[in-house]
Amino acid sequence: MTSGVHKAPAAVARRVEALRAEIVRHDRLYYVEAKPEITDLEYDALMRELQELEARYPELVTPDSPTQRVGGEPLKEFATVVHRVPMLSIENTYNEAELREFDARIRRALEGESPQYVVELKIDGVAISLRYENRVLACAATRGDGVRGDDVTQNVRKIRSVPLRLAADAPETLEVRGEVFMRNAELERLNRLREAAGEEPFRNPRNTTAGTLKLLDPCLVAQRRLEIFVYEITPGSGAEPATHREVLQCLAKWGLPVNPNHSFCADIEEVIGVCDMWREKRHGLGYETDGMVIKVDSLAQRRRLGATSKSPRWIIAYKFPAEIARTRLLDIKVQVGKSGALTPVAEMAPVKLAGSVVKRATLHNFEELAKKDLRIGDMVEIQKAGEIIPQVLRAIPEQRPADTVPFAVPTACPACGGQVVKDADGVFIRCLNMGCPAQGRERLEHFAGRKAMDIAGLGPAIIGQLVNKGLVRDPADLYALTQEQVAALDRMAEKSAANLVAAIEASKQRPLSRLLFALGIRHVGSHTAELIAMRFGTMDALMAASEEELQQVEEVGGIVAASVKSFFENPRNREMIARLRAAGVCMTESRPDADTGPKPLAGRTFVVTGTLARYSRDEIHDRIRQLGGRAATSVSKKTDYVIAGENAGSKLDKARALGVTVLTEDEFEALAGAGL
Ligand code: IVH
Questions:
Q1: What angle do CA 390, 395, 397 make, to 5 degrees?
Q2: What contacts 619, CB < 8 A, 6 or more positions away?
Q3: From CA 412, how far away is CA 438, in angstroms rounded?
Q4: How large a percentage of the chain has pLDDT more than 70?
Q5: How many angstroms separate the Cα of 200 from the Cα of each of 23, 190, 195?
Q6: Closest Cα to residue 167, out of 143, 135, 201?
Q7: Could you tell me which of 132, 279, 530, 652 has the fewest CB atoms within 10 Å of its CB?
Q8: Cβ distance 190 to 208 under 8 Å?
């Protein structure tokens, strides 16, 4: 065990350098060249080794180390950056005739010279400017109003395809512009997680990208996989190749990701041909594009063409029209999600739209449905524009059949007939019945999940069978299952039946925090569940708590407190908890092994900030809990102590501002040993 900071031996310093070079090489292979050589697991192992060495020898940490993408403290607000060269926008065109006019304008201005063009995809993301100083990423800023943007450097550091250091042959200072974006598959991954947590899904990748870059906590940014394509060198910023072709070559050579889908065209007819080709092909890219960007290749010609106050004259965007299709609305089904939200879904006659056949579309909520007055039997217009999920735009009034009626908003749950209520914000209607069969399946999957009760072998297929056979309606029923019942399920051997029954039995020992998360209470994620369980200690104390008492818990505000309270007020939920208790499911927080030993930190709340010498973040949190204390992640008036390590950031400032006692790691150790 190390204590304090040691001087790093030369061999360690060499290993750290070698690891960094190796990680940077793999980032480049993955993001710039799309030719990965190692698995994610192998990559993670390299990163972990580097993190461990840097934690032990903090003097080896450099701002461009790949580890600096990890961690970081939340900001209060973003600083403003004044762009050295304003970030102009691009003029839009919508048809070929306008493209030819653009070409004619350029030829006139160039007095008969023939321009060559480069055609690129117009990535539907968020424009960003990156400044490298001494080849190290120094500043990343959003476009803002074109003159002033937000300094989002610490969020952009989390984007793995943004190199923190440029190749050795790059200019010392360089400013480039590009587009931060999110792949469709990543949006879908995030939405699966959000739905599991009872949160509204994100609607499209662009808005999600913009929202992510504006998050004040970089750790949250790191959880969403953003990417970047770089497409311009800012004029006068350190490198002046003669053509855009060379610009793209240089950017890639220096380690910046360039979109491979660009074409060099000798004239405007070729440009139009390339745009036509991408009209359909773009749907197979896996990320959203809203058009093509046509640029004059010669940088000397660009300078002669100049700019208007709004946009440069050497560039134009060719926007694909939003694709719209018409089809018949056959039915409106009402779906019930895990958290009970009732969602109207349009079922339509299949129609081809933007590269796929569409026959279903979410109508989001009943207010939106009423506003559009969509009726079963209507001809409707559907669109996919910057949205992966098709949208029903409107019903066509002239084509409405005579016998249609407005859609009736459900007054009871369509699956269980249970009571429904409108959310406080007035948009969603929810079924309150924990025993609702439609919610049941998804709740059971969540209950058995790894971060919840962790019941190995209880996956969707088994849950489906158990529910269909009427053996299980809610989580408490799991504990009444016999081995014979389980063995009688399809594709279930004797041995796996025994394993599943044993896994269910073992889950009874999970602490209250896991159970609380497993119950799937809206707005209660695993971290919040831990904080609540830690504060109340037992299910009885928690069920008796008032909203005010719940709000005393670190990080629990009005919305969470109200959600918890209303969950425990529901008679069906109370009855289910009684059955869980009767089955022997643990209803207390402290595990038997953690119960023993002194509790010198009892009743105190700690927040850890910066890098500690002896512990990782998880380790110190475990130690605090083991000694009876609470570990929270944000500093407030309720915080008793802040433990500050190396490079502590805004949490330390906040602690000082609030007058919270700040401890060094050694002081914490002393208190932990001696008691408070
Ligand atoms: S060049 C003078 N190239 O589209 C602007 N922009 O609607 C130079 N965009 O603000 C930008 N893909 O955020 C350029 N291949 C591409 C692009 C691209 C997307 C964005 C950019 C710009 C917006 C204008």
A1: 160
A2: none
A3: 13
A4: 96
A5: 36, 11, 7
A6: 135
A7: 279
A8: yes
User: pLDDT at position 193, please?
Assistant: 84
Residue 593 clears pLDDT 60, i.e. is over it? no
Q: How confident is the model at residue 407 (pLDDT cuts 50, 70, 90)?
A: very high
Which CATH number do you get for residue 22?
1.10.287.610
**Does ligand 1 come within 6 angstroms of the Cβ of 90?**
yes
Q: Same domain for 475 and 442?
A: yes
Give the domain range for residue 496: 437-509
DSSP 262-276: -EEESSHHHHHHHHH
Looking only at the bridges linking them, the beta strands covering 630-632 and 605-609 are parallel
195: CATH: 3.30.470.30
Choose one of 130, 147, 231, 316 to mutate for the ligand 1 pocket test, by most ligand atoms within 8 angstroms of C-beta.
Answer: 231
Q: Best of 293, 294, 318 to mutate for ligand 1, by most ligand atoms within 8 A of CB?
A: 293
- Active-site option among 7, 122, 158, 651: 122
Same domain, 478 and 574: no
Q: State the Cα–Cα distance between residues 214 and 150, nearest whole angstrom.
A: 9
Tell me the two tokens of residue 558.
Answer: 């009005």
Which ligand 1 atom lies nearest to the CA of residue 307? 2
Question: According to the model, what pLDDT value does residue 337 have?
Answer: 80
If asked whether residues 280 and 158 sit together in one domain, one would say yes
pLDDT in tens, 176-204: 999 999 999 999 899 888 877 767 778 78
122 is a catalytic site residue:
yes
Question: Band of the pLDDT at 3, cuts 50, 70, 90?
Answer: very low
Distance 292 CA to ligand 1 centre (A): 9
Instruction: Give residue 122 CA to ligand 1 midpoint distance, Å.
Output: 6
Cα angle, residue 100 at apex, residues 99 and 106 outer, rounded to 5°: 95
250 CB near ligand 1 (under 6 Å): no
Residue nearest to atom 22 of ligand 1 (CA): 89
Task: State both tokens at 112.
Answer: 């008969």
Which residue type, as a one-letter code, is found at position 48? R
Is the domain of 281 the same as that of 310?
A: yes
Is residue 290 in contact with ligand 1, taking CB distance under 6 Å?
A: no
Is pLDDT of 112 > 70?
yes
* Tokens matching residue 52: 């461990």
Cα gap 125→144, rounded to integer Å: 14
Give the residue from 488, 509, 530 where a domain finishes: 509
**Same domain as 244, residue 149:** yes
Closest CA to 259 of 33, 30, 26, 29: 33
* 3-state percent breakdown (helix, strand, coil) of the chain, nearest 5: 40, 20, 40
Q: Which of these three, 592, 626, 649, is where a domain ends?
A: 592
**CA pair distance 321, 292, nearest whole angstrom:** 12
